[in-house]
Amino acid sequence: MCGFAGFVSKESAVEPEQVLSGMGRAIAHRGPDDAGLWHHLDLGAGLVHRRLSIQDLSPAGAQPMASASGRYVIAFNGEVYNFRQLHSELVKLGCQFRGHSDTEVMLHAIEQWGLVPSLARFSGMFAFALIDLQERTLVLARDRMGEKPLYYGYQGTVLLFGSELKALRAHPAWQGGVDQQALALLLRHNVIPAPWSIHKGIFKLPPASMVTFQLNAGHSNPLPEPERYWRLEECFVESPPGSFDDASHQLESLLGDVVEDQMVSDVPLGAFLSGGIDSSTVVALMQARATQRVKTFSIGFDEAGFNEAEHAAEVARHLGTEHTELYVTPNDALGLVPRLPELYDEPFADSSQLPTYLVSEMTRKHVTVALSGDGGDELFCGYTRYPSVLSRWQGRNSLSGLGRRAAAALPESLSAAAIRALVPAQRGRSGLAIRHRLKAERALARSSSVSEFYRQSVSFWAEPECFRQAVREPTYGLTRPLPPGVPEESLKTLMWRDLNWYLPDDILVKVDRAAMACSLETRIPMLDPKVVAFALSLPLDYNLKGGVGKQVLRSVLFRHVPRELVDRPKQGFAVPVGHWLRGPLRPWAESLLAPSVFGKQELLDESVVNAYWQEHLRGREDYSAELWGILMFLAWLEHTGG
User: Fold this and answer.
1) What is the rounded CA–CA span in Å between residue 178 and residue 313?
2) Which GO terms describe its biological process (predicted)?
3) Which secondary-structure segment (H or E) carries 161?
């Protein structure tokens, strides 16, 4: 786990070592243990690497690293968990190693088998920049599920790339500027999905992709298209491993082996434990294969309805882990909120970013690596919204849907008073609340597919009404056509959608930025490609029963933890941000909504935003999710200047 950045530039005025050092300092939190530079004058290419030492703590693991032949140079962020198995294969083929890092194994593999065949063999999380001095190319590549970030793009004639945007901003060629289409997606989902970033001309490399640049070709506009080296949809072919019990035992063995592989570390290791199904399963399998007590960490809140720490403590006691917990107060959040634009690097508005950072900060005081239970909901049909959305979609033309469809068909010019009289459910609500709700209903009613219906169901703003002018949203994971192999009009449609946007663009961004801001490596066993392929090959009825998902995963956990300790409604990692915005966070929010700050941008309509803010303050409606995205954008803009 580290961070890297680099550039390709023919501008002789640039002092490469000075510039690379500055780019590296911008992401020093990702790798506080060491820094390395590499520059090739003829190619105009440079790499900087910041190291968080996890495997091979010696200088033999330092980066950027050259291959044994000198042909390749790599800067790599992440972990390849099966590097020991690959090392054994390569030694048998005659490869000689200087150290025992996974980076060196990757380079030998690429020299021995080629890049694409090696990518197929790597099991892990990674983003890397690989320079081929023989072919005079730069290849940027990202892991299958998108655990590790990678930004790239041209600023003028200079190609910039790196683990975080702040490294790119440190280059003197940086121009910046807000991409309005990306901002529209932020308002819709509170995150910016790949391949887009908040900045014009800068993109996120999608998961399971690589992009190649010819270093002697100069500036290339448009950018070369990324190539996919692995296809998630190929995992959706159902191949039941026998009975449900057979599947359960196979999953326990498979996931247990993956967990054991991911427990390999030369530094202290632990795990996040929320007390839910996913993290409890990972911790249970860790403790079953560990030779000592596993260190576990959880976070809690005093506000009723938001606290899972007590459940985590019960699971920890049963499993016998060495457990540490932290209770978060509004003051903790108040102190952290102003730092969010710096931590998350571009506007990011999943409010669970607050506890994620705080639990990472606490965990880093005890260990350097933490395993996480993320991915279980997307892979094992765990979200309660899945059956709900599909049921609503299938019933949209039934008699039970008449009320919603009638409300959605009301003319936009109809007054709020008339709507209250016609629609009983809207009586007592303000005109703004009625209009906001009806726009969402109209968007649902106009949906022509379950994918579009789902997109509208998980949107905060159904229409970009807070923009001063119409903005067209670009294509992303929820609007891209379904590939062959993914069943249409099915729960697996929704799972595929989330695996292609919500998981990599929200969950994994949240975890990566929060943990790396604390110099903590996180590992996610559920996202091992073998687990992914197994989970998606299962029939739906192995996961969903009576509207409750993750049945096969639950069966694994119940062999280690009594059902009553974990079998409860899903709570999520939420925070009471709506309440906090009316209380301790109100001064911060109002400072951003003040004309002196709000007026620095011309994209959002102040009157519309202020109307929602006042409605939220009155307590009549909860618009915290809609407002949080706007506040995170304004805070980011104030921090970076755009």
Assistant:
1) 44
2) asparagine biosynthetic process
3) strand 158-162
Cα separation, 546 vs 530, whole angstroms = 28
**Predicted local confidence at residue 567, as pLDDT:** 82
Angle (CA) 228 231 232, round 5°: 135
Identified catalytic residue from 2, 95, 381, 466: 2
**Would you call 2 a catalytic residue per the annotation?**
yes
299 labelled ligand-binding: yes
Residue 384 has pLDDT above 70, yes or no: yes
| 20-36 per-position pLDDT tens digit | 999 999 999 999 988 99
Instruction: Please list the alpha-helical segments (H only) found in 485-585.
Output: 491-500, 502, 508-517, 529-537, 551-557, 563-566, 577-582
Q: Which two tokens stand for residue 145?
A: 């599920």
Mind listing the pLDDT tens digit for each residue in 32-71?
A: 988 999 999 999 999 999 988 776 666 777 899 999 999 9
What mean pLDDT comes out for the span 4-20? 87
Amino acid making up residue 594:
A
Cα separation, 415 vs 140, whole angstroms: 54
Residues 6+ apart with CB under 8 A from 201: 153, 154, 155, 175, 177
For CA atoms 602, 606, 608, 609, the dihedral sign is: positive
The Cα 93–Cα 97 span in angstroms is 12
Read off the amino acid at residue 597. Answer: V
Q: Which domains does the chain have, with CATH numbers?
A: 2-230 (3.60.20.10), 236-336+347-375+503-565 (3.40.50.620), 384-495 (no CATH), 577-640 (no CATH)
